[in-house]
Amino acid sequence: MQIAVIDYGMGNLRSVMNALQQVAPDHTLTLTSDPAVIAAADKVVFPGQGAMRDCMRELTERGLREVVLDTASKKPFLGICVGAQLLFEMSEEGGNTPALGVFPGQVLRFPAERMQLEGERLKVPHMGWNEVHQTRAHPLWAGIPSGERFYFVHSYYMHTPDTSLIVGESAYPFAFTVAVARANIFATQFHPEKSHAAGLKLLSNFVAWNGVA
Amino acid sequence: MLAKRIIPCLDVTDGRVVKGVNFVGLRDAGDPVEIARRYDQQGADELTFLDITASSDNRDLILHIIEAVAEQVFIPLTVGGGVRKVEDVRRLLNAGADKVGINTTAVTNPQVVEDAAGYFGSQAIVVAIDAKRVSQPGEAPRWQVFTHGGRNATGLDAVEWALEMQRRGAGEILLTSMDKDGTRSGFDLALTRAVSDAVQIPVIASGGVGKLQDLADGIKLGHADAVLAASIFHFGDHTVGEAKQLMREQGIEVRL
Questions:
Q1: What is the pLDDT along chain A (213 residues), one digit of tens a residue?
Q2: Under an 8 A CB cutoff, do B96 and A14 touch?
């Protein structure tokens, strides 16, 4: 089986490749920016780091926008961090940056006035290990207890009016969406590749997944 | 809710982990890959590697170490020491580091922080600040930034400098008290609190941990978001798990 990890020049993908290598030693993993290779893959991982506007620009300039939208419509597809945020319609980052619009909703900045808990000021970025509460069952959650901690680093969060998309939530200090899924797509705000055993389990579930929710 | 982090620090020179007091009397503490795996198994939340290799001949050894660790350990890895150019940041990230620490260069050429944060994202850039108390007893406390392993005074105020680094795109501050480093008498809690309360980004407290309670104090009294320690973990005095148990007993949220 071919798994393509989309490289559009945004951030370091070594960690994603290392973690996939660990859970899928018998599969062919390709880090690629070639639309033909992505189109031919059986599964696609769509990571992302850095500024949203740069990510959108790189995707467009490298001619990857169409193939991302196409694979997201039919193959097992895993979005990670900015790769998850890009699936929404718009992000507040970089002054209302239009995104891919696969899912309804926006990506919002953690609002400074709400970043308080019991007298403690909460830092932004939201960085570190937070509990992920599974709001509904999904094959990618198999073998992972609800409430397990995953590693996060982000200043913007996903917000969707379509609550049927939400499969995971965390609190900081208010509840926010950290994982969404629909049909063949699963996307996480956290970094499974940096989340120790639970993260590897999620990736291994993705490798085994047939894309049916 | 978000857990406070415990970060074991591995000082690496010529491919080996070492630990000394104030950069003298270095003792060999072992193979970096083996030690990284041990901390990972103990529940470390991240690992920090500080490359203190003096000779430029052996500088690339750290890249091989990071490559090997990143293939086996799936938690965030930070690497610092000797980072002078954006290209150095790129090489470390490509080897498998998730974050790169910039210390002396942040002072001598702060544009590197801005450029690196622009290219790789703020999440990849940790600015390390070495601070020493310069106020007299009885005065309001002030700390000055030092570089080159604590040898060179910069004239910069530590709190102001942390704010400046945040403005230039640092994603996190690694704050080391030069007065406390190696003394095993606890963090400089006033310094940690002054910086952590001033900035919006997370602050990692460093320098001075001698017992587990010091770690809890760094969080509760120093307002740190993460605590870093080396020697209490290296020689088997304590495990990361013990540290987390103690922190949890004191009401600090940790990942167990």
A1: 999 999 998 777 899 999 999 999 999 999 999 999 999 999 999 998 888 898 999 999 999 999 999 999 999 999 999 999 999 999 999 899 999 999 999 999 999 999 999 888 999 999 999 999 999 999 999 999 999 999 999 999 999 999 999 999 999 999 999 999 999 999 999 999 999 999 999 999 999 999 998
A2: yes
Q: Is B11 a catalytic residue?
A: yes
Domains, chain A, with CATH or none: 2-208 (3.40.50.880)
B48's tokens: 């920090």
Chains A and B form CB pairs within 8 A to the count of: 97
- Distance between CA atoms of residues B155 and B157, nearest Å: 7
- Give me A128's structure tokens: 């570190």
How many other β-carbons are positioned within 10 Å of the β-carbon of residue B196?
Answer: 25
3-state secondary structure of A7: coil
How many Å apart are CA A130 and CA B44, to the nearest integer?
14
Q: What is the CATH number of domain B5-250?
A: 3.20.20.70
Distance CA A82, CA A89 (A): 13
Distance CA A36, CA A59 (A): 15
Chain A contact probe: residue of B37, B69, B74, B99 with most A CBs at under 10 A: B74
- Which residues of A fall below an 8 Å CB-CB distance to B? 11-12, 14-15, 18-19, 21-22, 49-51, 112, 117, 121-131, 149, 151-154, 171-173, 193-196, 199-200
CA distance B8 to B27: 17
| Separation in Å, CA of B40 to nearest CA in chain A | 8
**Cβ atoms < 10 Å from Cβ of B217:** 20
Closest CA to A53 of A96, A8, A105, A5: A96
Query: The whole model's pTM is what?
Result: 0.96
Extract the runs of DSSP E, i.e. beta strands, from A67-210: 77-80, 90-91, 97-98, 106-109, 116-117, 120-121, 126-131, 133-134, 149-154, 156-159, 166-171, 175-182, 185-188
DSSP letter, residue B2: P
Largest CA distance in chain A: 53
Residue type, A132: V
Q: Which of B7, B4, B223 is nearest to B99 (CA)?
A: B7
Query: Which residue in B101, B88, B95 sits closest to B10, CA to CA?
Result: B101
Burial grade of B151 (CB within 10 A; 0-12, 13-18, 19 or more): exposed
